[in-house]
Amino acid sequence: MTVLVDSWAWIEYIQGSESGNIVKRYLESEEEIITCPINISEVYLKLLKDMPADAELVIDKILRYSFVAPFTVEIALAAARLKKQKKFGMADAIVLATAQANNAKVLTGDDDFKKEENVIYIGR
């Protein structure tokens, strides 16, 4: 199985929360782990705000754990359709379109994904 780790899940992992421990189990499993460039940007921004001294080190760790799926024109167009259809934010639409293009399940606790197919929802 391929698992796309969403920004929400990466942040929980970094914070070492209960949900982050679930993320850790996926990261340490045999699953193929991918992420989106938009997730890298969102997580890096949070790190720069909350943990600036560790931002580069943490991003490097994320990049070692996962393959960053390319953002293609096809994914961009699919994301626009998903945004219009589901009323998602653009970042969430890109994540979902990337997961669909890579036959991946989205690992997240973001409520926007709660009712979506092919999502491993670990929120509260």
- Report the count of strand segments: 5
What is the CATH third-level topology name? Rossmann fold
Strand order in the sheet with the most strands: 3-2-1-4-5
Give the DSSP E fraction (strand runs of 2 or more residues).
5-15%
Describe the overall structure:
With 124 residues, this protein is an alpha/beta fold. The chain has a single domain, classed as 5'-nuclease (Rossmann fold), CATH 3.40.50. The chain contains 6 helices and 5 strands. The chain has helices at 7-15, 18-27, 37-50, 55-65, 73-86, 90-101; strands at 2-5, 32-35, 67-68, 104-108, 119-121. Strands 3-2-1-4-5 form a 5-stranded parallel sheet, sandwiched between helices. Helix 3 runs antiparallel to helix 4.
Structure summary:
Helix content is 56%, strand content 15%. It has 124 residues and is an alpha/beta fold.
What keyword list fits this structure?
5-stranded parallel beta sheet; 6 helices; 124 residues; 15% strand
Please describe the topology of this protein.
Layout: E1 2-5, H1 7-15, H2 18-27, E2 32-35, H3 37-50, H4 55-65, E3 67-68, H5 73-86, H6 90-101, E4 104-108, E5 119-121
Parallel strand pairs: 1-2, 1-4, 2-3, 4-5
Helix pairs in contact: 1-2, 1-3, 3-4, 5-6
